[in-house]
């Protein structure tokens, strides 16, 4: 209930408090436990302006929430529009970060000086849940009205050993929740296992990833990868992880990104009609085919452009690798940068230096072929300057390895935006980078 002033038996309609401000009070605090009663009383003794404008770390969150709530309620006093679900979807991460709930002794703790703001968020989400229950029983409500937050019945239990390796494909996770989670696709509150979250996500067509933490899992309609930026330690969301499919199903978004990148490559580097050399892995080949249609290019599949070999790590998840070989990674972290590039600590593991050498050898072979020469691999490169440009389509780990070789620095998790590319002018014994580009294709326009 949204109302003004102290606790009262006011109706559900919002009312003004002071100079057009809105605050949260419980209509009947005696129906709640002692903690809620005390908080409701405390809210009645302080101004809403003090709560929403306090100099705390959450200041901007409260101001944004308060501003939108005031605007939406002014336009829709019925408190029943689609905006209720949307505001709740942006509020629940704040609620779960700032409130710690102990289900054993039925108590909770607020890590904020703004209980009025938190309780207002709770009220909005309670209204969202109530509206969805009513909508679920009405066939006249369109599906689009139920999408922002969706509640499901719990699926069958899944064993923990089946969490990250499943018939539907591999799952992976980030160290902390990603900063750009994308639109919500459903939520499950409480103690929910990772296995159950994966089952939920696999049952929802829109779900591509999910955030999992101590207060539940939150399904997201966005493809995520290890290249995505995560929140810093100590910030909101650092106790959550983002889990994602290793092979993303969001084909439509990927197609748009590839088409946009092809247009930029054509206008910026003049690659129309150039030959495309692509890794033989499915993701790269599909991208190359989209480029080819846009640029009018021939596609050549080249296995030497594929991901680095992981040796004994093949088939293992990140959590398994780091838990079983913790001592190894502690030792590697102490090695000098140059030594990390060449450290082969497992049989069959391809080092960054080896990966870069493999790609460099491929570039040399392509150069010789495009020049129409049959010289051996040890022959000097032709000095011609009329060689047509070619386009290589490969993977982020290959880009990391090439950059590591060029700059003499070990890279782990180089941040690349979707469809990132760089222009590499190749010269024998001197791999020189020129015109380094990184394109953020989410809006298909921005170049960074």
Automatic annotation (TrEMBL):
Question: What name is this protein filed under?
Answer: Uncharacterized protein
* Cellular component GO terms held in the UniProt record: cytoplasm
In alphabetical order, the GO MF annotations are:
phosphatase activity
In terms of Gene3D superfamilies, this protein maps to: Phosphoglycerate mutase-like
InterPro entries, per the entry: His_Pase_superF_clade-1, His_PPase_superfam, PGM_Phosphatase
| Signal peptide residues on this chain, from the entry's feature table | none
Write down the SUPFAM superfamilies for this protein, in alphabetical order.
Phosphoglycerate mutase-like (SSF53254)
Q: Which PANTHER family does the protein's record reference?
A: BROAD-SPECIFICITY PHOSPHATASE YOR283W-RELATED, HISTIDINE PHOSPHATASE FAMILY PROTEIN-RELATED
Q: What is the lineage of its organism?
A: Eukaryota, Sar, Alveolata, Dinophyceae, Suessiales
**Superkingdom per UniProt:** Eukaryota
């Amino acid at each position: 209930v949204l109302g003004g002033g102290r606790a009262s038996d006011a109706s559900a309609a919002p009312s003004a408090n002071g100079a057009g401000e809105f605050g949260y009070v419980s209509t009947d605090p005696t129906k709640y436990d002692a903690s809620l009663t005390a908080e409701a009383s405390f809210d009645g003794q302080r101004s809403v302006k003090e709560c929403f404008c306090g100099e705390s770390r959450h200041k901007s969150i409260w101001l944004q929430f308060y501003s939108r709530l005031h605007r939406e309620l002014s336009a829709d006093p019925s408190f029943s529009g689609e905006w209720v679900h949307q505001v709740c979807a942006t509020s629940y991460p704040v609620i779960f970060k700032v409130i710690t709930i102990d289900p054993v002794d039925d108590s909770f703790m607020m890590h904020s000086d703004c209980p009025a703001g938190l309780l207002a968020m709770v009220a909005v989400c309670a209204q969202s849940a109530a509206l969805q229950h009513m909508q679920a029983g009405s066939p006249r409500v369109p599906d689009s009205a139920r999408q922002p937050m969706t509640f499901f019945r719990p699926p069958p239990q899944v064993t923990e050993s089946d969490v990250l390796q499943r018939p539907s494909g591999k799952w992976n996770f980030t160290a902390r929740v990603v900063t750009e989670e994308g639109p919500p696709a459903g939520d499950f509150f409480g103690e929910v296992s990772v296995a159950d979250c994966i089952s939920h996500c696999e049952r929802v067509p829109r779900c591509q990833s999910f955030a999992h933490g101590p207060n539940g899992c939150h399904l997201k309609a966005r493809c995520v990868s290890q290249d995505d930026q995560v929140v810093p330690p100590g910030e909101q969301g650092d106790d959550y992880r983002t889990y994602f499919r290793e092979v993303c199903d969001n084909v439509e978004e990927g197609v748009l990104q590839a088409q946009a990148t092809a247009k930029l490559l054509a206008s910026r580097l003049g690659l129309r009609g150039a030959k495309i050399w692509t890794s033989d892995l499915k993701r790269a080949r599909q991208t190359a085919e989209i480029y080819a249609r846009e640029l009018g290019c021939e596609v050549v599949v080249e296995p030497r452009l594929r991901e680095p070999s992981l040796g004994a790590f093949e088939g293992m998840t990140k959590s398994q690798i780091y838990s079983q070989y913790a001592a190894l990674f502690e030792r590697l972290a102490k090695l000098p940068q140059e030594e990390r590039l060449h450290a082969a600590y497992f049989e069959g593991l391809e080092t960054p230096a080896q990966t870069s050498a493999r790609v460099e050898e491929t570039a040399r072979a392509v150069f010789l072929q495009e020049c129409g020469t049959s010289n051996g691999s040890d022959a000097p490169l032709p000095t011609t300057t009329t060689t047509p440009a070619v386009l290589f389509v490969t993977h982020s780990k290959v880009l990391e390895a090439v950059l590591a070789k060029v700059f003499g620095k070990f890279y782990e998790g180089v941040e690349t935006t979707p469809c990132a590319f760089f222009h590499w002018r190749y010269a024998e014994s001197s791999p020189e980078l020129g015109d380094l580009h990184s394109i953020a294709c989410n809006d298909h326009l921005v170049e960074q």
